[in-house]
Amino acid sequence: MGSVVALVDGFRTSPARRTRRTGQTSLTRLTGEMNYEDENEKGPDMTMQILHPPESLDHAPVWLGEMIEWAHALGATDVHLFPSTDGGRLWVRLNGDLQEICSYSVDLHTRMVSRLKVLGRCTDYTGAPIQEGRFGLNGVSRGGEARLSIIPTLQGEKAVIRLLAGENRKLELDQLGFGEELRSALRSAMDLPQGLLLAVAPSGCGKSTALYALLADLHARQSRPVSIVTLEDPVEQSLPFAAQVNIEAERGLTFGAGLRAILRQDPEVILIGEIRDAETSRAALEAALTGHRILSSMHTLNAAEALARLMQMGSPPYIIASALAGILNVRLLRLCCEHCKTARTPEPLEAERMRRMLGQTPEKIAATKGCERCLDSGVGGRTGVGEWLTPTAAMPQALGEGRPTPEIQKTLRIVASAQQEIMRLLTDLQIAPMELAQLTGMSSLETPPSGECES
Ligand SMILES: [Zn+2]
Fold first, then answer.
1. Which CATH number fits domain 173-446: 3.40.50.300, 3.30.1330.10, 1.10.3720.10, 3.40.190.10?
2. Sign of the CA dihedral 423, 424, 428, 433?
3. More confident: 24 or 420
4. DSSP assigned state of 248
5. pTM listed for this prediction
6. Ligand 1 center–CA 380 separation, angstroms
């Protein structure tokens, strides 16, 4: 049962309780299409049933629905049905890591993929090799949605179900875990009349959540209406205060085309899910220079890489420098389980690493041994940390000369550092030192304490 332990990694609510509650109540509301005739026979220990595939093919559709709902309740972002020559494997992605739930027969795999095609209302569930669809999730977050993608492989059809949060998920800037300095810098940037606010991080590190929270915060602070429009691929969460547009590239609704159309409607704030091509980057920078607040994200490890990427996409350095309000570099760190954490003295190597990254070493650090409440994972949720960087006058030249990223990094000013916040998390025994590995690419931790970039 090693997978049970790994599965609950990183969630604040006791996973065992959530799972049981899910098993008894919300499962019935999954998609409205599932057959729940044996609902009353479900015992309280749904977890055990869910972690084992059904013995009969006839139970496959119900089991699959329960599995998806269960994964969503745990906070998983994706469910994978991975084909292999001797059967299928079911994986879920939690905190960015795939975890195997179980393996099952080829027949069961085929049956479940067919069921998904029906659920996702795939246009042709017999013929087309690549299929996409979607279906609603109503159990844990009202308005939650599952996006289905099926591709043919030599071993069989591979299905991935992306689980998107519904409107019940709370989005508050003050709840993300950011320090006061960072929140205040972000609010000031959101109050600027125009400019591009770029969130950067590797995939699954909280960029979208941070951007959504910034929009929610801006909306909450205004007494007058603000015209907020989002362009996303796909819309990850429904926002009651924004007009959200889903990218449909196959029908010509690309980021670039969508943005041009949106700009004709005179919006004040635009969230562009991600800048990934020249057309989007050019349109985003132009909009940010002509009286619009643009929020967007890029999948890079650090701020300098994002700037270099914008350059490679053909945007001139002076345009980037004048359009850019600042860069938020964000990460998610796993919190220690409150119920089983203890304090210990750091090992010499750990102490040295902390001194190098943070300029000091806490006397005591957290250790977890795992307990019933965290199902032996030692993890009790996640918190966001971030830094805010703004361009200096030296940036356009460094970009234009194609200098290496460490040099470009030095032309950014660290307005809000992550250092103090991380030191606080360590000394308060909220995170273990191993979480420091997540912080690669954060400028405020790679600058020596006496460095010129200290703000
Ligand atoms: Zn614990």
1. 3.40.50.300
2. negative
3. 420
4. B
5. 0.76
6. 7
